[in-house]
Specification:
By secondary structure, the protein is α/β, with parallel strands linked by helices. The chain contains 13 helices and 15 strands. The strands form three sheets. Strands 3, 4, 5, 6, 7, 14 and 15 form a seven-stranded mixed sheet that branches. A six-stranded parallel sheet has the order 10-9-8-11-12-13, with helices on both faces. The chain binds zinc ion (ZN) (2 copies).
């Protein structure tokens, strides 16, 4: 089968790989029908994720059709249409039972990391019963792909951890796909204002279409003073970091109002100064989280009812056989005006 294979930092190949086979009674083999590329895949290609070894098939998002199930799988059978969660959950270990499936002792984020992933014609999914979701009939299949990672990540790590409430002033730093998914799910709570901050005017335009109430292009370095003016010197109730660099996390610390929440989503590759000398008395909460996938089912219902429209996040479409070009487009997001790319295998 065709698969996108990591060949060490900066190197990847579309190549022929053996089709995966069942290894455990709880496994399923899924024929991928749609998948996508994540910012995390770009981090892997930079060499930022040392758990990913050469020869690994990348990808942790996608939907497909069940090809084969192990003898202990009870919720799925051949022919079922499924969403693949980026988080594999055994549902039995201490972390899974606490709802922290990202730290599952036998799962967590393993797809396209420590086991072969979804940018291929077939993938093996461990703990299939509790790591896959049924796709309802007549659902928009492209919207379903957004449930593998981006929507639950924005919602769980940003909106829920940030405790977004009606009337809040919310700042989202980073208007890439994750920041935009956070914006879409934050709107479900009717905050008073959603301030979107980015260095790319195209992304800010998209954010405005998605419902951001205020936009700030931070490339002039004046984002903090503009936010303080907008909020009459008070700051924001929720600051959500969706980039993963020191400057953006520092901005969150400088704009947070007393009692506010700073929710980190970004993948950080270096240490960030923590300004406890100003924050120690401000009653703020700082959270970090890896997506657990525990809200995927409720987000699925919100999509099928028409309350959440995630296909707005999709900017480009390719065939799976064009995955190398898709990486080229996604990797040059500003130039290509790329958000999420969909790769179809049929
Ligand atoms: Zn992802
Ligand atoms: Zn577990």
């Amino acid at each position: 089968m065709n698969a996108l294979v990591y060949q060490g930092p900066g190197k990847k190949n579309l190549q022929n790989m053996p089709r995966p086979a069942l290894q455990d009674a709880a496994d399923a083999i899924v024929r991928i029908t749609k998948t996508t590329i994540c910012g995390t895949d770009l981090h892997i290609l930079k060499g930022d994720v040392p758990t990913v070894k050469e020869g690994r098939i990348l990808g942790h998002e996608g939907i497909g059709i069940i090809e084969e199930v192990g003898t202990s799988v009870t919720r799925f059978r051949k022919g079922d249409s499924v969403i693949i969660s980026c988080i594999t959950s055994c549902a039995k270990c201490e972390y899974c039972r606490r709802g922290m499936c990202s730290h599952c002792e036998q799962g967590g984020w393993i797809l396209g990391n420590t086991i072969d992933g979804t940018q291929a014609e077939f993938v093996r999914i461990p703990w299939a019963d509790t790591s896959l979701l049924h796709i309802p009939e007549n659902a928009d299949t492209e919207a379903m792909v957004m449930l593998s990672d981006i929507l639950p990540t924005g919602y769980e790590c940003g909106v829920l951890n940030g405790c977004v409430k009606p009337g809040d002033i919310v700042a989202i730093i980073g208007a890439g796909p994750i920041g935009l998914a956070t914006l879409l799910t934050a709107k479900l709570y009717t905050p008073a204002d959603i301030i979107m901050i980015d260095v790319d005017d195209h992304r800010l335009d998209v954010a405005k279409r998605f419902g951001a109430t205020k936009l700030i292009n931070s490339s002039d370095g004046k984002a903090m003073s503009r936010i303080m003016t907008m909020t009459h010197g008070r700051g924001v109730d929720v600051a959500i970091e969706a980039v993963g660099i020191p400057a953006t996390f520092s901005l969150c610390q400088s704009i947070i109002a007393p009692g506010g929440h700073i929710a980190n989503i970004g993948v950080h590759g270096e240490s960030v100064p923590l300004h406890l000398e100003t924050l120690w008395s401000q009653n703020i909460t700082i959270t970090t989280r890896l997506v657990d996938g525990v809200t995927t089912q409720l987000l699925l219902k919100t999509i099928t009812s028409g309350r959440l429209l995630p296909t707005q996040l999709i900017s480009h479409r390719f065939k799976l056989s064009e995955v190398m070009s898709a990486y080229e487009t996604f990797g040059n997001a500003a130039r290509e005006q790329a958000l999420k790319v969909i790769l179809t295998n049929d």
